[in-house]
Amino acid sequence: MPYQTAESLQPLLDRLLEGGPAARMALLDHSQERLRRLTHRMLRKYPGVARWEDTNDVFQNVLIRLDKALQEVTPPSPAGFLSLAATHLRWELIDLSRRYNGPSGLNVHYASPPIDQEGVRTAPDQTVEDCDPFGLSVWNEFHSHIESMPVEQRKLFDVLFYQGLPQVEAATVLAVPLRTLRRRWQEARVRLMEDLGDDFPEI
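Below the sequence we write its predicted structure tokens.
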């Protein structure tokens, strides 16, 4: 499926400005395959969540969050919509991670099995007293730092990291020169590396 460009999203956003559930549903329908793929890609970074939730479950929750958000706010641009979608996926993953890895969460009592290359989970079969699945603290801190970034830098992570747009496409969506986007992206990554140190995940 092609990337959600300004050309494909803007007419739907313009229609959304007129209001009504039909316009909102049209925008969500147009974007759902990209959102599902995005959810699948991000869920693989959360084995402690992927053990209990599959892509479709998480995707449906994100879609519900996004639908509710679109009833209250209309993104003014494709960049705003993509950022909104990434934000709600980020929040859903953080909430699920806290649920399963909290003091009474299932991952505290069961060791998380690996996920194979096809994304298939094996059955849980080991009980442990203390469990910190790979990526729990690192990814939660990573997402929290992005949430606290200035809007300009956060949007870069939304379109480049979460949405997976190539830099040329991201520059178009964000309406900035490609050279400027590359410079800002480097600055944003350096800032995050300085904040997280050795815990900076590979992106």
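Residues 157 and 189 are 9 Å apart (CA to CA).
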